[in-house]
Amino acid sequence: MEQKAIYDLLAGHLGEHAIAWHEGEIEPWAEIAPEGINPACVFLRDDQRLDFNQLMCLSGIDWDGFDEAGKGKSLGILGYTDEGAPEASDRVAEGDFGVVYHLYSHGQRHKFTLRVRVARSVAAVPTVSEVWPTAAWHEREAWDLVGITFTGHADLRRMLLEESWEGHPLRKDYVMPASWEGVPMDGRPYAVNPFPATEPEPKGDSTPPAEA
Amino acid sequence: MSTGELKKGGWADQDHVPGIKSELLELNMGPQHPATHGVLRLLLKTDGEIVYQVTPVLGYLHRCAEKIAEGVNYKQWVVYTDRFDYLAPMCCNHAYVTAVEKLMEVEVPRRAEHLRVVTAELSRIASHLIALATFGLDMGAWTPLLYCFREREEILNLLERISGGRMLYNYMVPGGVRYDVPNDGWVESVLEFITMLENKKIKDYNDLLTYNKIFIERTADVGVIDEATAKAYGCTGPVLRGSGVKFDCRRDDSYSIYDKFDFEIPVGMGEQGTVGDCWDRYIVRVREIEQSCRIIRQALESLPDGSVQAIDLIKPVKVPVGAAYSRTESAKGELGHYIISDGGQTAFRNKVRSPSFCNLQVVEKVGVGQMVSDLVALVGSLDIVLGEIDR
Amino acid sequence: MDILTALLQGLPGFGGMSDQGLFITGAAVMATLMFTVMALCAIVFTWMERKVAGFIQSRYGPMRTGRWHGWAQAVADMLKILGKEDIIPAEADKGLFVFAPLVVLLGSLLAWVAVPWAPGFVAADLDLGLFFIFAASSMVVIGILMAGWASNNKWALYGAARGAAQMVSYEIPLALATIPVIMHVGSLNTQDIVIAQQGGIWHWFILRDPFLFVAFWMYFIASIAETNRGPFDMPETESELVAGYHTEYTGMRFAFFFLAEYANLFLVSLIAVFVFLGGWWSPIPGLDFAPALTFVIKGILMVFLNMWVRWTLPRVRVDQLMYLCWKVMIPVTLLCIVGSGILMITSGAVG
After folding, report:
1. Distance between CA B96 and CA A12 in Å, rounded?
2. pTM score
3. Domain boundaries B109-167+179-313, corresponding CATH code
């Protein structure tokens, strides 16, 4: 089915929650309000004409500092300074968060893309893990790395990082830690060499240096 | 003797003997464990030999490659894709350059496309050989491991001759491949190798392992992933095909030049037990090796002349603004890249959808009620690679 | 013991010894000999295992240490193992942990005294020889259970529980398979069993009647399970239980388990040889020049068969293992006993 036709069906079902249709050249997408994402996914999965039985990918995105002009002038990521200290910036992050859903139908052989945008202060999207179980891990990953809360998720823990990790690395304003649980993160050696290399004994002439 | 019977016999779902306190045993399988294929950690709750809960704990190999992608340019990041599925790095290269080229809308030279297909399929064979080998090892059969590694060694030699690397190649770049075919009879060597593999070696594996009675007993009807579960959990690749779904990105969502080749998509048919059991997933990989050989032969026999790079190799590429999800069939399944470009030299966001990550999730559901030995079989048959899961 | 006592009496300095003194000296000599043979066979068989595995897996195996086909590799390995740090886990039950390898070693060592190496050459010529061997070797399971429990490691516990279930179960078909032979001989004395097979390959018990032939293979399968080797290596199962009951053991204590495994392997092979395969008799009558050598060569061939199986087959699952024992092997061995008995009566061997 044509992408636009899918969107028209979806928009007819969702009403006001279907915000806009973006006819991109490479990958068109539908923008959905966060409140509408769960009904939208249930509809897309259960409607026989659409039959989206697979969630290919779910990506969490931090749109902070995105260069809308398309000149490649987006904000750079923060790293470590030459001295090894974490780089910080005074700028207050303000961009929205986004979640992108890529769907595929094994029966109908068509794809569809949904996008959701939430304000940075909200940073919460309803979960779709009950629609497709595979979303559970994708959402945990998005929570872990981008810091988007998925309301209604049964088990929203960190996926790849430790529970004690602070911050969400894929946020654009993420500041690298100097250390984590006592482990230096900036490339300094973790353990101290118990046998430090001593200076070689002077050979031959072993006379003490003349007193001043 | 099926696991279905065993599920009922466990302690935890019966009334306990009065006066005897019993509890589930918490077991830490991994991160250092011989059957977890790397640094996977499975938290098990077991009742004797029967598993009541599986909780995979990931991240022991996490490098946050997606963050690195925002800091290095498109060509530099190819080397990081090598490290995802380090058993089939060519497939990962291929997936990434396909995604970048989709955004750039660049025409790749025909010769480069053919070389990409040949190297990616060789990598796929190498990865499947390891899958067979380690699955056999999980079942306690040591000897197939050595046989499979012997053939893998040949593939590594071939790929070394064309790319210079044995394990991590960094061979493909957006717009082509780095090196043309070396003029030392590489094409003939590849053809010779796949002929030997098709005619002799696969028969060896089948004799030694595939149709071994004990092996069938251990894998048939074990760890059954039915079609609905496989789709709902986003399983792809041999896991999905093992469950009887005839789906392959190379054919059904064709990329590169796969639509030009004639090959079949093997699916699990439940020959030894139920559709979607461990044996089906295993045999799908064996048959895919044969199909990969067919693709390689066709690609090499129709290898066109010409250049192998469309874009200057030295300069960093600039990708026009846009966003696209591009998926390819890697050795483990659907490897997708979702790249958002702001028109610059680095990606604004590069999300990697790795097949092992999605395939592993099914363990949480299917692993329950299995015996510990069957869980090992299940994890082995999923053929996960931790570099890709943890990224 | 008789031959040894006679030998000792002939030696200068032993002539004036009392019978008791001679007995103790003889026992000491025998014990030393047994232990040496055991240690030696562990070394020889580890090397052999690697070469056989290499042969089956189309590679060489050790080739460097000691020049000729890496013959010194096993010696070097032994030295390495003995040189390793001895670690006892902090939470382990120390007494049991230390004691367990000794029990395992004792179990497999004790059984060796009744092995008939050559006519009259047996450390203890017991009337209940075969029975004694099975009884002594079943002590191994106690050691394995102790090791698994004392390690305070869940994987070790799994290995021990599997090992106990497996070894206790497989002792039954193992012993039952030898009963038809005992019926033929009418004695449990190991010397008598071998003497009854005199007269060439057709007089060996394996070829006496079809039921004995089946009984031999039943014995062979059960013996693989009894020695915890693939495809029945449930207590170890390196791909499931890390290393099973000896996960926490290092150094000398691990070496004891290692030693016991190979001693056990050779022991069950030698039992197969003297019960079914004619003991020290050569296949062709009248060629019995070196009985002890014939006996050992046959034993090594059986060990080779064992290794061949191990390096070819995948491992069975623990419930399939139990199924095989209780629902297949025990009925078949019982059938062999009945069938062999009926054949004996009909052929007039028994009044």
Report:
1. 36
2. 0.85
3. 1.10.645.10
